[in-house]
């Protein structure tokens, strides 16, 4: 089951837990537009996909055996703080990892995901991803028809992006 907590900001391996001990509730995640589910059956994922108009999907395995020499580089890339102009939906098929999202006051919240967990990150939220010390996650990525999934790395120009400003406005109501 999913656990979320304030990131401890201790320098070092991103794949460690970095658990400060301060728990973040599901309701607090919802307040920043992050939705979570736990589905044991892919039928439930299919229902959610239909409900939200998602028609396409793929599966990725992020591990040294799946990616070989590319693995370490991918892990670093996923951990660059970025946003997307679309929702990011991931369903964990196996293994484990961490999504870090920015709180209202711009602190990192770490969401620990494992098999059966589904996470929906809203367009415009700054986030990053990492595998953990086991270096293995298999996930389903859900797409609407035209994914605008380019990661936009955080910088002053991206701070002014329309999806970013719309997201921030949604938090202040
Ligand atoms: C992302 O968008 O960062 C990813 O797709 C990471 C792998 S999915 C668990
Ligand atoms: Ni992303």
TrEMBL record:
State the family named in the UniProt similarity comment for this chain.
Belongs to the acireductone dioxygenase (ARD) family.
Has UniProt tagged this entry with the keyword Nucleus? yes
A single GO molecular function term of this UniProt record: acireductone dioxygenase [iron(II)-requiring] activity
Binding, Ni(2+): 82, 84, 88, 127
Tell me, what is an example of a GO biological process annotation in this record?
L-methionine salvage from methylthioadenosine
> Would you tell me the protein name for this molecule?
Acireductone dioxygenase
Q: Where in the cell is it found?
A: Cytoplasm; Nucleus
Q: Name one GO cellular component term.
A: nucleus
Cofactors, names only: Fe(2+); Ni(2+)
Q: In which pathway does it act?
A: Amino-acid biosynthesis; L-methionine biosynthesis via salvage pathway; L-methionine from S-methyl-5-thio-alpha-D-ribose 1-phosphate: step 5/6
Q: What class of enzyme is it?
A: oxidoreductase
Q: Does the keyword Metal-binding apply?
A: yes
Residues bound to Fe(2+) = 82, 84, 88, 127
Q: Which region of the full protein is contained in this chain? A: 40 to 212 of 213
- Origin species, per record, is Tuber aestivum
Report the protein's function: Catalyzes 2 different reactions between oxygen and the acireductone 1,2-dihydroxy-3-keto-5-methylthiopentene (DHK-MTPene) depending upon the metal bound in the active site. Fe-containing acireductone dioxygenase (Fe-ARD) produces formate and 2-keto-4-methylthiobutyrate (KMTB), the alpha-ketoacid precursor of methionine in the methionine recycle pathway. Ni-containing acireductone dioxygenase (Ni-ARD) produces methylthiopropionate, carbon monoxide and formate, and does not lie on the methionine recycle pathway.
- Assigned EC number: 1.13.11.54, 1.13.11.53
Q: Which reaction does it catalyse?
A: 1,2-dihydroxy-5-(methylsulfanyl)pent-1-en-3-one + O2 = 3-(methylsulfanyl)propanoate + CO + formate + 2 H(+); 1,2-dihydroxy-5-(methylsulfanyl)pent-1-en-3-one + O2 = 4-methylsulfanyl-2-oxobutanoate + formate + 2 H(+)
